[in-house]
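This entry is listed below:
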Amino acid sequence: MEKSRFHHEINRNYWVWLMNQKIDQFDKKILQLLQEDARMSHAEIGRQVHLSQPAVSERIKRLESNRVIRAYRAEINPKALGYDITAMIRVSTQQGRPYADYVANCPEIIDCYTVTGEDGAVMRVLATDVDHLQRIINELNAFGSTSTAIVLTTHVSGKSIAVPNVD
């Protein structure tokens, strides 16, 4: 086997091995730090978890490839964009009226969950005013009956996912 092909095979085997590794205490600490500050440099993470920057970079790449880390986002204040109303809309979906395409393409629906119970779906919606909210509700009524609650106060939002067993 030629040298470059041999090295390629070793690299491929290494990455297969790396991708199949379980989440350990280092990974958990990295996940905790990234949830606190997704813009933290790999070097700074390395200092805090006592690993080299390249080791941190490899671990983060593996966590991304394995979809443990799904995205990096900025948390934006909806009011700064004119969305003064946040509402929770429950939809009692009717069989044969799929709503998934509508929800995926409606920018005001920022979360949608299929749930158990009488309601088939619960959605978190942003609206600029009551008329805007009413238009969204009217469109959702095509998929089943709706029930809406306007959010008055948010006590917890964007909370980090608890990473178990991190010292």
